[in-house]
Model the fold of this input.
Amino acid sequence: MSKPRLRRKAWSLIPTKMVPMCDVSGSMYGTPMEVVIALGIGISEITHESFRNTVLTFDATPQWFRLEEGDTIVDKVRKLGAAPWGMNTDFAKAYNLVLDVVETNKLKRENMPCLIVLSDMQFDQACIGSPITMFKHIKISVKRVANKLGWEDDAPSAIVFWNLRNTGGHPVDKDAEGAVMLGGFSPSLLKMVMNGEALNEEEAEGVQKDGTVKDKKVRVTLLEQVVKKMLDDSVYDRQKFSCTSS
Done:
């Protein structure tokens, strides 16, 4: 099969199409804990109504953790900070919980959210089984739901792994299809995520084995491109001018 030729952007990752998985374990003390709680609450309040005011717990058996709509921000912070957590998790199970909601509510493909994992990646096992097995399982699950709901596009939404402490741990290789890794926390990185610039998909043309040409979605934002987008932010224009003038 020939190398795909990218043609146009199809959609962007935006907070209103995210489901947060929040790691509130002891290793998240300090800024990472503040960020995971703030982002978890914030995303849960603006995401699709079928997932609103809920986050996924970060433990061996992920489950939905509900934040009541009538709660004050103080109540939500206290509740999420005390949510269950474990030393490992199963991202495939978490993705299946998302698919269960999608199937129950008969959502359209465009309302299928991405899973964003907010953690410092300091756990003994990121995936039960290899990442290849995990993503293969997810593809099979999404295809089943897509067939049942009549979706034309059965490609899984991405999983975004945001390492809020920028430690050395990472659950998948940087080039893993269907995954995006972000590291550390900064205003520019937060802006990228909130503006929907952390991940893009593009339409590609590829020649199949039988010689036919078929469109497919290809995720093109890898670690290097995330860094480039951050450096292209207008906040750095003055520094760029200083460098070119020197």
